[in-house]
Design brief:
The chain is mainly α and 453 residues long. It has 18 helices and no strands. 54% of the residues are buried. The protein binds tryptophan. The site of tryptophan has 16 residues, from helix 1, helix 2, helix 10 and helix 14.
Length: 453
């Protein structure tokens, strides 16, 4: 059944479960691991502001567009697009949105699982007390020794993939509800504790200053594209993940307020992560632009110096792993739901197959930190850089742009209006302007500027 009031994959029991699940998808490694390191690589303050602007002007409308489309079609993104195209006599080319999402999903999942595996490794490390009182140099060594050993990375990657496949096999709804109900609030709480600790550090004000000073000179077309890519990544946009979740949203939920809450929660966690990590960086004289290792070097260092650090540190990496798993599930959902619909296949079987494909792809990321550290892929320094470039800077923004265009122009105004609960009139026009013109134009401009800039 398509376009009804229920999805065959189940329904969120109420609007708050959708908020929690979508926040579970949005809040993940992108906030805690990726946001701080990208801020560091792009020089801080100005980048953060660009990022916030992208969240508000591009992210929120596109997230709304994804929920509208998903809830209207009530199927996997590919079949939702097919259904809406047929119903409204649009070009079949729009299904490419769904397919590009599937490709992006495989690529993102492949490296996401590897990094989440690092968090699992650090649960063990913190729990064993091995990091108590570590120096910056020791924390750095531990991390680089870990990366140099592909077998270790593969072990943790495999474990995390197995956990993801297990949960996603049970259905997003059943598998997720418990996870998001307890672990999301716990993660918020622990971030507050860490924030309190960061405030006591000598480097606190320098860290805050780094994140919020406005240095125009660091605004380059590339930084703008990176900020936009991060906005898409952190909100799980541009590849149909939110569209897939939107298919399970009860018809009565208000889309605007729901999406705003999700975006706010997500942004809070990212900013908090930055405010925890940069004071540690400055207090210990570390590099802001050290890249993907930033969280894995700074956070153990902080816990190493704190009373009960081993305990808190273990909990922290546990929560990061949970945040990662609730995200990983949503990355796989569009492809999974599609194969289940298309072949009437068993969810668990499909989950294992898709997980295996993505696991193999992930070896490219594993080797990017050791065997293939010097192997360039199409102009990118490593396979990992290639995968993040293609997804964050190409597939997600373009996917998001076409999603906004579809919701803005291809869907009839009456359909969108009833999804949003708008009567005809000025609000409908404003929405069309934002979703159909402003958001896609912003994506296009940023994209072209960085291409030719
Ligand atoms: N948003 C998640 C994070 O910040 C990652 C994620 C989940 C994602 N689903 C996605 C990214 C879909 C892009 C597209 O960790």
């Amino acid at each position: 059944m398509a376009g009804g009031t229920e999805s065959r994959h189940g329904m969120w029991s109420n609007r708050w479960l959708f908020v929690l699940a979508a926040a579970g998808s949005a809040v993940g490694l992108g906030n805690i691991w990726k946001f701080p390191y990208i801020v560091g690589e792009n020089g801080g303050g100005a980048f953060v502001i660009l990022y916030l602007v992208c969240i508000a002007l591009v992210g929120v409308p596109i997230m709304m567009a994804e929920v509208i489309i998903g809830r209207e079609g009530r199927q996997s993104p590919i079949n939702t697009m097919r259904h809406l195209i047929k119903q409204h006599h649009r070009s079949p080319a729009w299904t490419l949105i769904g397919w590009s999402g599937v490709v992006a999903g495989f690529l993102i999942l492949s490296y996401y699982v590897v990094i989440a595996g690092w968090a699992l490794f650090y649960i063990m490390q913190m729990g064993s007390g091995a990091l108590e009182g570590v120096s910056a140099a020791e924390a750095d060594h531990l991390f680089s020794d870990f990366l140099a050993d592909p077998w270790q990375l593969i072990f943790w990657q495999t474990l995390f993939m197995a956990m993801t496949v297990f949960i996603i096999s049970r259905g997003v709804i059943g598998g997720l509800e418990t996870a998001v109900r307890w672990f999301m609030p716990a993660l918020f709480l622990l971030m507050v504790v860490l924030l309190g600790y960061a405030m006591t550090l000598d480097g606190w004000s320098e860290g805050v200053n780094f994140m919020f000073r406005f240095d125009f000179s660091s605004i380059t077309p590339d930084a703008v594209l990176a900020a936009m890519g991060q906005a898409f990544f952190t909100l799980s946009l541009g590849m149909g993940a939110i569209m897939a979740y939107g298919a399970y949203v009860p018809s009565s939920a208000s889309i605007f307020s729901t999406v705003t809450i999700i975006a706010l929660l997500d942004t809070l966690v990212a900013i908090a992560a930055g405010l925890v990590i940069f004071p540690i960086v400055f207090t210990n004289g570390l590099e802001t632009a050290q890249g993907p290792g930033l969280m894995f070097v700074t956070v153990p260092l902080a816990f190493g110096q704190m009373p009960f650090g081993a305990l808190f540190g273990t909990i922290f990496f546990l929560l990061v792993s949970f945040a990662a798993i609730t995200s990983a599930i949503s990355i796989g959902e569009p492809a999974l739901a599609y194969v289940v619909e298309e072949y009437n296949a068993k969810r668990s079987r499909v989950a294992i197959t898709l997980g295996a494909i993505s696991w193999v792809l992930g070896l490219g990321t594993v080797f990017s930190f050791n065997y293939w550290a010097e192997v360039e892929i199409l102009g990118q320094p490593t396979f990992f850089d290639f995968a993040t470039f293609v997804t964050d800077k190409v597939l997600l923004p373009l996917g998001g742009m076409f999603i906004a265009l579809f919701a803005g122009w291809a869907l009839p105004g009456t359909v969108v209006g009833s999804q949003l609960g708008l009567k005809e009139g000025p609000m409908g026009i404003i929405w069309k302007l934002i979703c159909g013109v402003l958001a896609p134009a912003a994506v296009l401009v940023v994209f072209l500027a960085s291409l030719f800039g």
